[in-house]
Amino acid sequence: MGKKSELPAETRVDVVLALLRREELVAQLQRCHGIDEQTLYHWREGFVSPTAKPSWQGKKAARRHSPRSQG
Q: With 0-12 CB in 10 A as exposed, 13-18 as middle and 19+ as buried, what is 12?
């Protein structure tokens, strides 16, 4: 398992939005934020997939929104 990113959640969202809006190239985002390509695409998938848990949410936030905690 890889090392967890130390970037704040807000920064991760900004990076993914820049990727989705095509404001910067993947390579530029990688260099600027010190992340690898796999991490960047993992964040994107978590951001756009309705079933994926976003990687920038903490465990408490994920539990709060899970169907099992709605009881």
A: buried
Non-local (6+) Cβ contacts of 29 within 8 A are: 15, 18, 19, 35, 40
Give the whole-angstrom CA distance, residue 44 versus residue 39: 9
37: containing domain: 9-59
pLDDT tens, residue by residue, 15-68 = 999 999 999 999 999 999 999 999 999 999 988 886 766 655 555 554 545 455
pTM over 0.85: no
Query: 39 in helix, strand or coil?
Result: helix
For residue 33, is it within any domain? yes
